[in-house]
Amino acid sequence: MDAQRRGRGEPIDPADQWVLNPNTGEYELRLTPSAAQSPGPGGRGAAGGNGTGRGAGRGTDRGTDRGTDRGTDRGTGRGTTTRTDVPPQRRRRGAPEEPPPGRRGGRRPVQQKPKKAKKVLLWTGGTMAFVLVGVGAAGYLYLQHLAGNVTTTDVGSAGASNFSKDEAFSVLIIGTDKRTGEGNEGYGDKGSSGHADTTILLHVAEDRSNATALSIPRDLIVNIPDCPTKQEDGSERVVAGQQGVRFNRSLGENGRDPGCTMRTVQENTGIRVDHFMMADFNAVKTLTTAVDGVDVCVEKAVNDKDSKLVLPAGESKVEGEQALAFVRTRKSFGNSGDLDRIKVQQQFLGSLMRKMSSSDTLTSPSKLLKLAEAATEALTVDKAIGSVGTLKDVALELKKVPTKNITFTTVPVKDNPAETVKATVVLDETKAPGVFDMIANDVSFTEVKQQKKKEKDAEAARLKGSKAPAAEVRVRIQNGGAVAGSAQKTLQYLQVEEGVTKSTNAGNAPAALAKTTLEYAPDQADQARRLADIMGLPGSALKPGESVTNSQGVPEMTLTLGKDFKGAGVKLDAPVEAPDVEKSTADKVKCAS
Fold first, then answer.
1. Where are the extended beta strands (E) located within 166-319?
2. CB 417: neighbour CB atoms within 10 A?
3. What single string gives the DSSP state of each residue in 9-29?
4. Of 155, 37, 34, which Cα lies nearest the Cα of 98?
5. Is the dihedral of CA 382, 387, 393, 396 positive or negative?
6. I want to staple 286 with a disulfide (CB 3.0 to 4.6 A). Which of 275, 374, 577, 588 is the partner?
7. Does residue 258 contact residue 251 with C-beta atoms inside 8 Å?
8. CA nearest 350: which of 123, 134, 529?
């Protein structure tokens, strides 16, 4: 632990250690005496003992690793936690060796932040945030510190085993009503184990052109499936499912962990959930304070006795307790219900995203480091993304999505007609399936440029050229993730409606595919272009490869129907009509009413 945590020395803000060098115009890391860096071999470690040290407040103890909390450094006095796995800082070849700090005539070395080190915005959705700070010699140790802030939960098969930068992904963002953290005793349900109070399913498109943040009402009636949970001793316990209960009971109750909430979402929407991020009331307070407040707007003045929110009509800036009060307020907005509170929360999150992506935040080392601390301390995540390095990767992928193409919407619902559970809602079956299908099939709710020019040109080249007559097209059809029976229905459609009589049903594919593909040999290109024209296959679906020889010794192409398949006779490149649901985008300013 450092001097601050041990009660010796004034509190140190990590951001204050980045100082602008007027000679270079760049920020440089100037460490305080209690966190001094050793310049290289032979220097005195500021953390523990007489060995070589590097980083913010850490050194290596020479000999028997006794300097774990108190060091014997003759240069700067008492040290901090010892690290024996940190290599010495290397001196550039040909550069003169500088005297270490503390020696007569020597100056404290200034470590420059690498020019190519990146400061990536902290991007949030609901109660989550991701961060990447500048990484250099000292940055390594700071990231190690951040890693210690993150809490992880093993959700087993409920989520993905790793994070992929090459695929679409969905993160379930969960805000609990657990009364943890200073000043939160009066919030949420007393004695609650932490229900899913605010839940958003964030889906990021494979090409990163868009994202959808789908709010799930806590009072939605759902079926909670059986849920295997990992116990502290490593064993597994299955929590029995429940039928027809509130969605918020999928977390906390009977020992249900976030993996249970992930399974509940997937069972009731059909959308795969890859990861989760969870935080309590403190997240809103710490994140908004880290960015010096978030701009909000209300149509009329608010003086809410329950949440203690007091705001004038028009625009205001909120942070800390006031920000938390804003997102918790119900009775001052709409019809005082949870659905109207969700709209207010979406408006708030859009504003927070704009603030975090603003130049005012991105060019401020102070704010970035505060965000790093706030985000990692506020989060509990699944093990697959539980390292700072992986959170960095998630941040970089999220940063690619323009705020104008981040859509906020809510699961379409209607009042529970049966009222088996009071004050609840059920799925609107006329709209909800369409919303779920769009997200599951990676379709944007906003008009976006789906491809770069080079990609479009490549697709056009595949489709350009002569096309064989339909009667000469030979293709075997297999189901690789489409609805059961799709291969047979497609076969019938092609033979009866389109004249592709030389086609066969090859059953199920060896593995499921997200996208429909057509593999063909070079001499079958004209057949592939004809079938692509009939089925509306994009150029990216055409995969030059090998043909498969059938029992008569005739080569056939292979059409694999993926999860994006829309049905026999429905062209894959046909525009998808979004269901008529209320939605907003993160770039627009809206006032709560």
1. 169-176, 196-204, 211-216, 221-224, 227-230, 236-239, 242-246, 275-279, 294-298, 302-303, 310-311, 314-318
2. 7
3. S----GGGGEEEETTTTEEEE
4. 37
5. positive
6. 374
7. yes
8. 123
Burial of 553 (0-12, 13-18, 19+ CB in 10 A): exposed
* Cα-to-chain-centroid distance, residue 169: 8
User: CB pairs under 8 A, 24+ apart, for 330-335?
Assistant: 330/306, 331/304, 331/306, 331/307, 332/302, 332/303, 332/304, 332/307, 333/592, 333/593, 334/593
| φ, ψ (nearest 5 deg) of residue 20 | -75, 125
Give the DSSP per-residue string, 360-397.
HHHT-HHHHHHHHHHHHHH-EEEGGG-SHHHHHHHHHH
In 3D, which of 282, 291, 279 has the Cα closest to residue 369?
Answer: 291
Alpha carbon distance 336, 356 (integer Å): 29
Of 572 and 385, the one with more pLDDT:
385
β-strand partners of 214: 201, 409
Residue 90: which pLDDT band, with cuts at 50, 70 and 90? very low
Amino acid code (one letter) for 343: K
Average per-residue pLDDT in the chain?
76
87's CB contacts (< 8 A; 6+ apart) are 54
Cα separation, 149 vs 6, in Å, equals: 18
Of the pLDDT bands very low, low, confident and very high (cuts 50, 70, 90), residue 300 is very high
Instruction: Tell the burial category of 9 from Cβ atoms under 10 Å away from its Cβ (0-12, 13-18, 19+).
Output: middle
Q: Is the pTM of this model over 0.85?
A: no
Quick one: pLDDT at residue 101?
A: 45
Q: Show the DSSP H helices in 72-120 as ranges.
A: none
Q: Where are the alpha helices (DSSP H) in 357-485?
A: 359-362, 365-378, 388-399, 432-440, 453-463
> Which residue carries 């989520």 as its tokens?
159
Tokens found for residue 369 = 């480091």
Residue with tokens 């480091």: 369
Helix (DSSP H) and strand (DSSP E) numbers for the chain: 12, 29
Task: Answer yes or no: are the C-beta atoms of 479 and 449 closer than 8 Å.
Answer: no
Of 315, 332, 341, 396, give the one whose Cα is nearest residue 119.
Answer: 396
Average pLDDT on 295-320 reads 93
CB 572 within 8 A of CB 537: yes
Sign of CA dihedral 251, 374, 209, 207: negative
CA distances (Å), origin 483, targets 105, 433, 489, 494, 570: 77, 14, 10, 17, 14
Share of the chain above pLDDT 90, in %: 37
Q: How many other C-beta atoms lie within 10 A of the C-beta of residue 503?
A: 23
Instruction: Give the separation between CA 348 and CA 388, rounded to whole angstroms.
Output: 26
Q: Are 537 and 515 within 8 A, CB to CB?
A: no
Distances (CA, A) of 416 to 190, 269, 518: 27, 18, 45
Q: Which sign does the torsion angle of CA 246, 249, 250, 254 carry? A: negative
